[in-house]
Amino acid sequence: MRVGVHRLAMNHPGDTSALERIVESGVIDPASIICSIGKTEGNGGANDFTRALATLRFASVIGRYLDKSAEQVAEEVAFVWSGGCEGVISPHVTVFTREEDRAPQREMPEDGGRLAISVQRTRAFLPEEVGRLPEIEAVAEATRLGLTDLGVHDRADVHLVQVKGPLLTPAGIADAASRGMSVVTEDPNRSKAFARGATALGVALGLGELSTSDVDDAMVASDLSRFSSVASTSAGGELTSCEVILLANSPESTSDFRIGHSLLSDAIDVPAVCSALRSAGLDFDCLPDDEQRSRIAAVFAKAEAPPGGLLRGQRTTMLSDADINYERHARAAVGAVIAAVTGDPRIFVSGGTEHQGPPGAAPLATIVGV
């Protein structure tokens, strides 16, 4: 397996010009595109339609090269979009390619292997299943399938499981009510927390971080003491199923990249950013220099407001600001801290960390060129 990583700037949510350039110049084969993970300048809420626009545009362009409809491409390629480019975060997309190069299986090299990627999809969910056990179990099964696909047997080799799933829309809530079914919440924006939490618990279950007896409906977005250390999840109204993207280091990969991860203890945890880069193989003392920064291919992070609004004992307004949602505060802060270390504002930062790391913490993964 050979995995490519291409981080592309975007001028607006429908901008595919950078993708078109690397396809038409022969840098990548459009048939090898397996998924993309990107940031748009939408609000990141339940009514953020920039995500659907970006999916439609990218699927249409890829389909044009492959003589397929946008709908066909969307079934074959995972498109994960997170709205909200607050602060210095730059709108962008990271496109992943996967080609089977038939390289013989190797023993695990000293550096821990190279980047491997697997994309799995769950079935579509009914509104009453979103944020509940059926979604947890389906994501767990998709995660296990990803491990099998990559031939990964040690959980320590997995550094990021990115999941995008559905949230509850007004139409979905009305549909459930018409059938006499209850949903986890009737607030579409509140449903994001349940959806993110359920899919993160699914990752934890699939990786063996939790057992079946550890999870139930009542604990979703409630008992945050149970979590996955590598799950990064988000939810949008443009989906009805979950896309599960598993990234690991594998001896079967001949990629030019490695992935590593760490946990941000809070929104200004610079040492954790450095730790994630070192985990991916970047060797530096205090901060990376320009040459080392040029090898950073992608960064994926979650962001959360500090518990009680207190950051290292000092009051913040993240949880008390009536004008700006706390997720937007958190994304802006975390994006700035990471960009200050990496020297590149094309950072994927998604808000809301329910069951994604211990309470108050947030997962961070980095991909570095070997």
Q: By helix and strand content, what is the structural category?
A: alpha+beta
Remind me, CATH topology of the largest domain?
60s Ribosomal Protein L30, Chain: A
Tell me the total number of β-strands: 14
Shape: globular
Beta-strand percentage range = 25-35%
Question: Helix segment count?
Answer: 9
At the first level of CATH, the class of the largest domain is: Alpha Beta
Helix content: 25-40%
Radius of gyration: 19 Å
Estimate the mean pLDDT confidence. Answer: 95
Number of domains: 3
Q: Biggest sheet, in brief?
A: 4 strands, mixed
Ends distance:
16 Å
Strand order of the largest sheet: 1-4-2-3
Low-confidence parts lasting 5 or more residues at pLDDT below 50? none
CATH homologous superfamily name of the largest domain? Cyanuric acid hydrolase/Barbiturase, RU B
CATH architecture classification name of the largest domain: 2-Layer Sandwich
SSE string, helix = H, strand = E?
EHEHHEEEHEHHEEEHHEEEHEE
